[in-house]
Amino acid sequence: MEICFLGTNGAIPTPKRGNVSFLIWSGSFSLLVDVSGNPVQSLMKVGIDPLTLDTVVLTHAHTDHLYALPSLFHTLWMMRRKKRLTLFANPHTEQKAKELLRVFGLEERPGLFPYRFLTIPPEPGTAYFPLPVDEESLPGGGGMLFFPTLHSVLTHGFLLNTGGRKILYTSDTAPLPAWKVDSVDVLIHEASGTEKEEGALNSSGHSSSRQAVEAALHLHARELFLCHFPEDKEKVKLIGREARRKIRESGYDLLLRVPVPFRWYPIERVSL
Question: CATH class for domain 2-266?
Answer without folding.
Answer: alpha beta
